[in-house]
Amino acid sequence: MIFIREKREAKRVAFEPERMNRLLGTDITAETMLEYYKRLELEYDEKTGEIIVPTFRQDLECMADLAEETARFYGYDKIPVSLPTGEATTGKLSYKLRVEELAREVAEFCGFSQGMTYSFESPKVFDRLLLPQDSVLRVTVNILNPLGEDFSVMRTTPLHGMLNSLSTNYNRRNKKCPPL
Q1: Do 43 and 52 form a contact (C-beta atoms < 8 A)?
Q2: Which domain holds residue 118?
Q3: pTM for the whole structure
Q4: Is 44 a domain residue?
Q5: How far apart are CA 37 and CA 12, in angstroms?
Q6: Which of 55, 110, 146, 174 could covalently link to 152 via disulfide, CB atoms 3.0 to 4.6 Å apart?
Q7: What's the total number of domains in the chain?
Q8: Where residue 87 falls among pLDDT bands split at 50, 70, 90?
Q9: Burial (Cβ within 10 Å: 0-12, 13-18, ≥19) of residue 63
Q10: Domain check: are 61 and 119 in the same one?
Q11: What is the DSSP letter of 54?
């Protein structure tokens, strides 16, 4: 039996010193970084602006890996303490969360309410909801180690939880609870 092993090619990673400095919070020159990489037997291709990573360095895959090597040589103790930068770190919500918040506000303005209920329920819920025995909503995921029978299956519909919340609010005379 003959085994043919493919020859591995050296990886190429874009050399972005400005981006690495932003990531690390430092001001290390590109020349200094290249000196660090020479010690690691990494080569720099001036034409493409890439670092050529030899095959024996399988841990170097991307720019962040090069930044880690830069930080190691520069000295972790010399890296200044700084807050992370980015949209979600400046006291603002991320774009996705801002869109969700806006959608929630529009829905509430239109008269909708938000309800949050438990994901675990009792198998008896389906009988209380008068679901037929052959309903797909009765096909559940059983919890292997439930807290009790009342929390032994994953819910397949939020209806029981919402009805339970409405019932609790009604019984406690909560006037702000919207009618069905």
Answers
A1: yes
A2: 113-171
A3: 0.47
A4: yes
A5: 13
A6: 146
A7: 2
A8: low
A9: middle
A10: no
A11: P
